[in-house]
Amino acid sequence: MPADLNAVMSRKAEIRRRLLLGEHILVRAILLFLGLGFLLAFILVPLAAVFMEAFGRGWTAYVAALSEPAAAASIRLTLLVAAISVPLNLVFGVIAAWAITKFEFRGKSFLITLIDLPFSVSPVIAGLVFVLMFGLQGWFGPWLSDNGIKIIFAVPGIVLATIFVTFPFVARELIPLMQEQGTEEEEAAIVLGANGWQTFFYVTLPNIKWGLLYGVLLCNARAMGEFGAVSVVSGHIRGQTNTMPLQTEILYNEYNIVAAFSVASLLALLALVTLVAKSVLEWRLKAAHSSHSGHAA
Amino acid sequence: MSLVVPARSSRRRSVIPGFGITLGLTITWLSLIVLIPLASLFIKSATLDFGQIVDVLLSPRTISAFRVSFGLSLAAASINVVFGVIVAWILVRYEFPFKRVADAIVDIPFALPTAVAGIALTALYAPNGWIGSFFAKFGIKIAYTPLGILVALVFIGLPFVVRTVQPVLEDMEKEMEEAATSLGATRWQVVTRVIFPTIFPALATGFALAFARAVGEYGSVIFIAGNIPLVSEIAPLLIIIKLSEYAYAQAMTIAAAMLVISFILLLIINILQRWSARYAR
Questions:
Q1: Which of A66, A118, A140, B214 has a C-alpha 20 to 30 A away from that of B262?
Q2: What would the pLDDT profile of B195-226 be if each residue is shown by its tens digit?
Q3: Is B110 touching A (CB cutoff 8 A)?
Q4: What is the DSSP letter of B106?
Q5: Are B211 and B272 in contact (CB under 8 A)?
């Protein structure tokens, strides 16, 4: 018996060893070279180029480009738009995830598809639909202009377009997470006499806080960086309706390369901070739920 | 990535409060922000004259824009499939220095605003840029040609393939490979007969997602494309050009056509995700 066991064990170890080796060393080297080379050439080099171009004329030129009034106005507008659209999508995302994951109803997967819809729509079309509704030729256009309300080529249009493109971020992060957690804890809280709000704040929220933060971060990154949709509704009025991505475009088209990359570098920095925070959160999420979940992005 | 909600066994009536109000708010907000605006596009398009629609869609400029958008998106998604699998594979199976950094880098195209990616790629691939000047020596022009559009679309599409394939590779049971190896299969046979069929549904999903994103992409493309009508003009840019010319009817027609194609793509992606979710289990 022990001899048999040993034989089995050594055979298993042999298979393990072959599997661990996997591909031929040469194949591994080629795959590593191709994969890492691709990441380096296609992703890391463009990212580095942003900062190289921004600091090409030194620190003073960089600071001067950012403190120029139109650039400063674009930074303020971007922060304002994110400050309005992200909280709205945060609240919506939590409400939608609650309805979808805590109850059973017909048409649920269709509803999820509809929430996901903005991801499949070209940003340009997202902007266009708001022009069709609120532009001068649009449905509400004449009424709005009679009452002196400006939506298109003004801040409200930019906010609307941003909410549209960032619509699914929080919900799609929360739905799989809350689905996995089930409803037992909430049911227990209700049975023990907690009301709905207490149940949400003391039971559900602690369970989903990292996933929620993660969704908000991604939502915020997209809200601040959105270009196509905002470009259609903004009207590109310098100092008034230019967000940072639009300001980048204008400066670039004026061959003001250093200034364009200076504004762009702030957006790239935002992307990097988002990614670092995302990595930290993913690590925390894994620590919080030792159960393995398959959805990464 | 997957948002497929597995069907639950029917349960008793929930004691949790808030069903009516949360579902009501969800549907109201969804309708106001997404559904009604999108519907307005179709309702407005329906008022157009049929002959006019056909004229717009069959004009050489529109046909060329659609060919550039869809053709290059197809090419970019195909390149992403090849390199996406390689990247996912080395991230899951191999150990190397800075592996966590390499893993985080994959998400940069998701997080980096498209306009930033657009000007950075243009600066690199322009004839006087770091990469562009190298290719210029061989007479290859990248920026301001359809090749430049391809570069931008490959950039933005990569994470979609990696992030759909990676979890499937992670979850894959090694026992299957072990069994195949112990039964005498060569490594190549294991890869083509065991691993590839397992990741294929995820790969198809990643391809479809990258393709759908590339078709609608605007920000990263317009800087590097050169935007020459009939050569390197993409469909989303044509919509913007028509809008700036106040040709609303033409802009709507092109947008509605793109949207219909996007919906069909979305349907295919959903079916693929269901299929891959079932396959993975």
A1: A140
A2: 888 888 889 889 988 998 999 999 999 999 98
A3: yes
A4: T
A5: no
